[in-house]
Design goal:
The complex is a heterodimer of chains A (about 110) and B (about 120). By secondary structure, chain A is mainly β. Chain A contains no helices and eleven strands. The relative contact order of chain A is 0.34. Classes of the chains: A mainly beta (about 110), B mainly beta (about 120).
Chain lengths: ~110, ~120
C-alpha cells in the first residue's frame, strides 16, 4: 500500500518568513496530492491540492510543487502570518475506483509574531 | 447545509463499555470514512464505505465495527472499549470516483477517553 512520509514534524518561523513542508510517497499510481490544514481543536480542511499532470500550483501565498519522478511534493507558504499556525497534513491518492487517501503524519507550524 | 456532523462531541468510557459514534452528511456523498487521530501519527483510516450497505476495513480496523444503512449516515461502534482506543475520531465524506480528485470533508471530531 501507499506510504507517505512528511517532514519536518515541527517548524517554527518568524512572521513574514517562508515555510516549506516536504512529503514523499511510495506508490507510483498516486496522482492526486491534497494538503489539509488543521487548526487547534478544529477539523482538517483542504487548503490546496495538485494533480499529477501539473508540476506546480499556486493560490495566493500558498504553492505546491510535485516531482513525480522523485515521488515527492512540497507545500510552500510565503509571507507567513500568525493565522498560518496550525498542523498541516499532506496526502496521496490514486485515481480510479475507490480513491483511498493516505495521510502523512503532520507538521506543526508555529509562526512567531 | 450542515456538511458533516458527528455526535457526540466528547465521551468518557470505562474499559469494556460499548458505544456508537454517529456521522451524518447532507452533501449526498457516496463515500464515507472513519479516522482516528493520535499525536504524532496523523490520520489513520479505521473503516470506510463506498456506498449504502457497503463497508470495508481500513488501516486500523481491529476493535471497531461500522454500518452504513442509510447513505447519509455512517456509524462507528466500539463493542468493548480499551484504553488504546482513547483518541480523537473524525468522520469524513467525499464524492464518487467519476471525478479524478477526492477532496474529503471532515466532521468536527469526537474526543473519546477510555479509562
Amino acid at each position: 500500500g501507499e506510504n507517505v512520509e512528511q517532514h519536518p514534524s515541527t517548524l517554527s518561523v518568524q512572521e513574514g518568513d517562508s515555510a516549506v513542508i516536504k512529503c514523499t510517497y511510495s506508490d507510483s499510481a498516486s496522482n492526486y496530492f491534497p494538503w489539509y490544514k488543521q487548526e487547534l481543536g478544529k477539523r482538517p480542511q483542504l487548503i490546496i491540492d495538485i494533480r499529477s499532470n501539473v508540476g506546480e500550483k499556486k493560490d495566493q501565498r500558498i504553492a505546491v510543487t510535485l516531482n513525480k519522478t522523485a515521488k515527492h511534493f512540497s507545500l510552500h507558504i510565503t509571507e507567513t502570518q500568525p493565522e498560518d499556525s496550525a498542523v498541516y497534513f499532506c496526502a496521496a491518492s490514486p485515481a480510479g475506483g475507490y480513491q483511498k487517501v493516505t495521510f502523512g503524519t503532520g507538521t506543526k507550524l508555529q509562526v512567531i509574531p | 447545509n450542515a456538511g458533516v456532523t458527528q455526535t457526540p462531541k466528547f465521551r468518557v468510557l470505562k474499559t469494556g463499555q460499548s458505544m456508537t459514534l454517529l456521522c451524518a452528511q447532507d452533501m449526498n456523498h457516496e463515500y464515507m470514512y472513519w479516522y482516528r487521530q493520535d499525536p504524532g501519527m496523523g490520520l489513520r483510516l479505521i473503516h470506510y464505505s463506498v456506498g449504502e450497505g457497503t463497508t470495508a476495513k481500513g488501516e486500523v480496523p481491529d476493535g471497531y465495527n461500522v454500518s452504513r444503512l442509510k447513505k447519509q449516515n455512517f456509524l462507528l461502534g466500539l463493542e468493548s472499549a480499551a484504553p488504546s482506543q482513547t483518541s480523537v475520531y473524525f468522520c469524513a465524506s467525499s464524492y464518487s470516483t467519476r471525478v479524478s480528485y477526492n477532496e474529503q470533508f471532515f466532521g468536527p471530531g469526537t474526543r473519546l477517553t477510555v479509562l
